[in-house]
Each structure stands twice: as C-alpha cells, then as structure tokens.
Design a protein that fits this description.
The chain contains 1 helix and 6 strands, in the order ββββαββ. The protein has a 5-stranded mixed barrel. Strand 3 and strand 4 form a beta hairpin. The longest helix is centred in the middle third of the chain and has 10 residues. It starts with 5 loop residues before the first strand and ends in a 45-residue tail after the last strand.
Length: 150
C-alpha cells in the first residue's frame, strides 16, 4: 500500500491562470507559498518560505479562477506529481507540482488580498468553511443555495 497526499495552508503567489484542454476541460495553475519559522544555532528567529506549483482541474479550476487572487489564504489537499519534458534546447526538464483535489478559502474577506469581492468561502468538495475561532470580521450576509455557483 502507498499514500501520496499533500496538505498545505498558505497564500497564493499570483493570480490563478486558467486554460482549457482541446476537450473543453478547465485547468488552473497558480503558485502557493508556505512559511516556517525556526531558531538557528545562534538563537535567531529565521523564516523560510517554500513555493509550490498548484494544478486544479475541472469545475474546481473554474471556481479557483473566479474567487482566488494573489495573497488569498487557502487550505489545499492533493497529490504530489512530477512531470518531465524536453525544453527548446533539448534539455530534459522536471517539475514537481501539487494536483489539488480539494481547496478551501480561509480567513475573512479582508484577509484575501486584492479580492475586493464578496465571495463566499467555498471548497472544491462543496462544503462551507467556518472562519477560525477568534477571527473578527463583519457579519456576513445570508447565503442561499442560489448564491453558490455550483
């Protein structure tokens, strides 16, 4: 038995870019940063940022394009996948990416930098996400089934 599962919480490094395959399926790409803080040998606090390439397919790709923006804080689940190809000079290239099967927007509306929209918290598995305990935000307007885009 084997397991290939990645769970990330971080912020988008750029706005999502969505394209469509020849068969009409949406595929969305963006980068996501995760941070860790640690103390080095001299006791100084250090911060390290890791960048991840994210790929989202289908309806979730369209939702990501509509609601996510650079700086958005999200929770993401997926699998790690590597791809190889030959570049223009004939060199073999490899990239590692996370193929997401679920994501959720985190934080309040003001936490999603640059979003400016009143998007509800959504996830790829169509569950609503409650804000973190202690998070202060203005009361949200009521959302009905007709407001959700899927």
């Amino acid at each position: 038995m084997s397991v290939n599962k990645a769970i990330l919480v971080g912020r988008l490094g750029k706005d999502p870019e969505t394209r469509y395959t020849s068969g009409g399926q949406a595929v969305c790409n963006f980068t996501m940063a995760t941070d860790e803080t640690y103390k080095d040998r001299s006791g100084e606090r250090q911060k390290r940022t890791e960048w991840h390439r994210i790929v989202v397919w289908g309806k979730q790709a369209e939702i990501a394009q509509q609601y996510l923006r650079k700086g958005s804080l999200i929770f993401l689940e997926g699998r790690i996948q590597s791809r190889q190809w030959d570049d223009r000079e004939g060199q073999k290239r490899t990239t590692v990416e996370i193929v997401a099967n679920n994501f959720r927007m985190l934080g309040g509306r003001g936490d999603n930098a640059g979003s400016g929209s009143a998007a509800p918290n959504i996830s790829g598995d169509a569950e609503a996400h409650a804000p973190s305990p202690g998070a202060e935000e203005a009361p949200a307007p009521e959302v009905s089934d007709e407001d959700i885009p899927f």
